[in-house]
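Data card: per-record layout.
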Amino acid sequence: MYKVLLSGFILLLTLSGSAQNLIGWKADEIRKYMRTEQNNFSLDETTVNKVYKYLKYVDETETKTALYFLSDHDVCIWYKVVYDNDLLPSVIAGLDSTCRKVSDTLWLEKSGGNTYQKVLERQDWFFTVITKPVEPDTVKH
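The structure for this 141-residue chain is written out next.
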C-alpha cells in the first residue's frame, strides 16, 4: 500500500509540473535536466516562433507539452505546460498538494527563496498551467 501511495504522489508531482521550477535556469541546463530527469519528454524543434525564444518539449503520449520561455541571454524567465483536459483533476490535485491555493485558477509556489504564481487557464480541448514570478499586486503573500 505504501508503494502505491508513493507512486501516486510522484505521478501527481510530475503531472502538475511542479516537480522542478526551472525559472532562472540556462537553456543548456534545461536541456540536460529534461534529458536526464524528464526523459519521457522529447525536444520538439519543428516550430519556429520569431516573437518568443523558447524550448518546446512534448511527452511520449502527446498529452503534455512544456514550453520554457527564454530571455535574450538564454535564461528561463517563465514557462507553461499544456495538458489534455483528461489530466485536469490530477494536475489540480498536484497543485493543491505542493502550492498554496489562492483561487480556483491561481496557486503560489515558493522555490529558492522566491515566490512564483501558477495560473490555470482552461480551453475547450486543453488547459495550461503558466508559471512565472509573482506580479506586483497579484496577491498578498
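Known properties of this structure: The chain has a mean pLDDT of 86. Helices lie at 2-16, 27-37, 88-98.

See the next section for split statistics.
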